[in-house]
Amino acid sequence: MEIRSIKDLKDIDLPLELNISFKKVFEIFQKYADITSKHHPFHESAKIMTQKIEETPELINGFTDFSLLKKHENTINHLLDALFPEILSSNEIKLATVPFSFTTFKYTKRFKDILDNAGDNYELKVRNFEDDVMYIYACTLILGTVYNYPVDLKRPFFFDIPDKKMGVTKHYRVAFNGDFMEIYPSKNAPEITEEDIKILLDNFDNIHIWREKFPPNSYIFKGFGIMNLFDVTADETLSSIRTNLLQKDDGSIVERLQKNLGEFYTIKDLKVGFSVYDVSNIEVEPPRVKISESILIENGTVITCKDFFCDYVISKIFNKNEEIVISDIEQYGMKSGESNFYQKLKEKNIGSIILIPIKTSTNRDLVLLEIASPRPYELNSVNKQKLKDIIPVFKAAAERNSEEFLNTLEATIQEHYTSIHPSVKWRFYEAAEKYQNVLFTKQEEAKIEQIVFENVYPLYGQIDVKGSSIARNTAIKEDLTTQLTLAINVLNKACSSENLPIYDELTFRVKEYLEEVKKGLKAGDEIGILDFLKKDIYPVFNHVKEINVQLSELVKTYTSSLDNNLHVVYDKRKAYEQSVTKLNDKLATFIDTKQEEAQKMFPHYFERYKTDGVEYNMYIGQALTKQKKFDKLYLYNLRLWQLQTMCEMENLANITRKTLTHDLEVASLILVHNNSLAIKFRMDEKQFDVDGAYNIRYEIIKKRIDKAHIKNTNNRLTVPGKIAIVYSQDKDAREYLKYIKYLQSKNQLGALEELELEDLQGVSGLKAIRVEVIYQNDFTSEKTITIDQLLHDYKQ
After folding, report:
1. Coil/strand/helix, residue 580
2. Distance CA 730, CA 5 (A)
3. H or E element that contains 790
4. H helices present in 417-500, as ranges
5. Are strands 94-98 and 225-231 parallel, antiparallel or unpaired?
6. Dihedral-angle region of residue 613 (phi above 0 means left; psi in -120 to 50 means alpha; beta otherwise)
């Protein structure tokens, strides 16, 4: 007899004192040994067995000493022979055990082979059966057997046992037979009332209550249990595959499926891969690999008969969407003329392979699942049938992933092209839900409602590249001058090589254009010059480059100076545009990051635009959120945050300009509007705009204010190194002077000016505070002040 145990019975923490006893089996033998069963075939043998057992009373009374199992091994084996018939020993997976202890002392040959195959370090443990759960499970057993109050805590138990020979893990479900055990209370067992049972039923997760009502070792267990194990590896694999496919892919899906299918087929070195093909236009162009975690095929591969698959595979996979089994790669190689596909299979040491195409309906992709073995015939048309229950799961997962991918694309489009800010998305969902309900009830003239937010307070800011129009025009002039000068060089050389009047005439016209450019560009000049070069000059260049090597080199110099895409000299403009783009990206990224922090203070609408610089709108008010109650205090906090952020963006621009090819200066502006207004989502423009005739004045000011001059001067309001704060009511000035004074104390702002502005078209009476920015030499975007620090310091 081989006894396997993780720990001694006395060391197990349970409400049961576990005793091994064969009393129940003895009672069966007593029944057959009785004179009333003298004609039963078991009668004589039962008499002998009862006599033997009576000579060893501890087998009936119970014991905890494992050594007694060994001592009475022969008797116990005879006792249990009827439960473990020799004829079924190689087929049944059965064992005698002490419940809750994972102690086994009698098992069939098949179970012994499974344990031997599991390795010396394997411990027989039930999956996901923690100590506290085991304790409570024992308590419910007591409730059912002692107090006749059955509690349904039945759930399937599993053993996960490694198979070292095959290199896989097999899974076994447990069926437990408790006919050979009994439980009764000890002297110290507390009485369990009906009220106690109600408390226990409401407190499954409170182990302390269960231990209070059922203290350790307060009940006596006598007997043993019989466990029958059933190999459910295939079912478990199916379940695991379903689970893995239903989960979001964290990048390990192929690895997990490879493990699952390796267990399913009992092939430890099974390989799994997949590719996603674009087959949306297969009638016109061959399939192309979009995504690949394939054993064989790389991303971007275009699949044609000539380049990869043979006609047979192309037809079956892409045209008929049918599975293919290649059970012997060498035979396939001979039949396909050693195609590229065969060569790839050979290179990857594949002996047999199953290919399963899954066509998605959502976006007409085709997912090709690959299951491969290094050995021929290990995968074949017969064991492919095992996949019948799995393929629908793969199809469902492919459909779901396809839908998720389209949702991701939709989210990308929303984010980058036509986004709805998260702070107001809830309102769009409300409107969409109402609209769908109207459609569902088949009401006539269903219309989706307008999205309007009443009584919200606007904040507007911009940080603009100064002199951008002049700088861009200067860059265009310099590039055109270079291009026309290069053209003149070619024509002058052509005149000396080939005395044709046309060269003089063209040179004259090019010089005329060059003089015009140097005087200054007017609208349409650049297009006119480029059109002239294309129609009149380039055909001549194509001719002259054939005359001699020198002319050919000059034409080559000219063409090499042109941008490949625009076909113009684009050096100065490119340097300028790259500088503007770099500055814009830095500023936009910075305010986007700071916005995430500001949203935590109070949810508000935010939209940002890149121009020659960055401008943004913010709206805050109760109508925009369901999450918090609005108070004007949040508006004041946001205004302070905006001014602080403008200081930081000025510093960021000042640091960034030192790294730019073009030295760009910026000027900042904040527009204060003290009255609330309404904003409405414009369905045609897919953006919010102010609503109502009175509120239009605010939009007019926004569009014209950055060009405003100081009253009775020709000086612009916005200048580099200063932040201009435009307002119309004196109380707004008083509010912002407090913020400025605070930031002056932090050495972020310097001297200020209070100014009156000239009247704008349709707008009069505007005033401004213009305050100097003090630049920090050690400024970094990573060390900016947080909104919590800002508000904390401001309140001090």
Report:
1. helix
2. 87
3. helix 787-795
4. 422-440, 468-497
5. antiparallel
6. left
